[in-house]
Amino acid sequence: MVYGVQLNQGVGFLNNHGVKSMRKTGFVSFIVMAIVLLAACGEADDHDDHGTGSELNFDPLEVEIIAPEEADPNEEVTIQALVTQGEEKVNDADEVVFEIWQQGEKEDSEFIEAQLTDEEDGVYEIRYTFTAENIYHVQPHVTARGMHMMPTGEIKVGDAPDVHEDEEEHGHEADGHSHDLPDDLRVDWQAAEEVDSGEEAELTVFVDWQEEPLTEARVIYEVWQHGDEAHEWLETEEVEPGIYTSQYTFDNGGDYHVVVHIENDELHEHVSQLIHVIQAE
């Protein structure tokens, strides 16, 4: 009988203690679940803030240079780059840097970091003073949303010769060499200089750096018809060490400009090539 009483008391103690423990465990579990739910909601909101909750933008990045065609020596001018992706103005570019150099003096380029304007309408700008009467090349290097663009424009300062007159005077060498290239860099154009319109053409260059094929570089072709403001950008594939190729169909007859942009950790150069396209009958 004594053992029975003690057992009953023990059972009662355990039941009371067990109920309390279960209540405490249930309360703690409720708190943990609430914290998890709040964290999940916060994470979802954070993803929505980065565009997961809205339609993703798959349009290519576009950069338009906004600058005067002519300027006077020792006159400060505003040079801008309008960065867009489809209809969207890009205000979150990782980097916008203007490279400026005089005709024939690429090795003496200046690099100036641009700032987003107060209007935050996708426009990044610098102020620059041209000191010499010459043709200046202006090239914004824009890195944004995993893409990189680097269009080139020209500004005539003072009594410098016209841009196209200067190009005709110096010409384009058939093998793609440029007077502005470093001595250790050689770029050989291996594509035809005359093609038919409407047919896919293979554009190929061989790039040699310090007497070795330049491998794993980023090589991009910038293509436009002479007199046309619309430029197209073509990614290339390295099919063999130092050999970069891409395919392009020239729609119309006439002269086309192809600028080969070459980039890696050491280099940021470009070479111009002229292609004549025969209009298909």
From TrEMBL:
Database matches in InterPro entries: Ig-like_fold, YtkA-like_dom
Positions of the UniProt region annotated as Disordered: 158-182
Domain of life according to the entry: Bacteria
Pfam families given in the database record: YtkA
Domain YtkA-like: 59-141, 183-261
Name under which the protein is recorded: YtkA-like
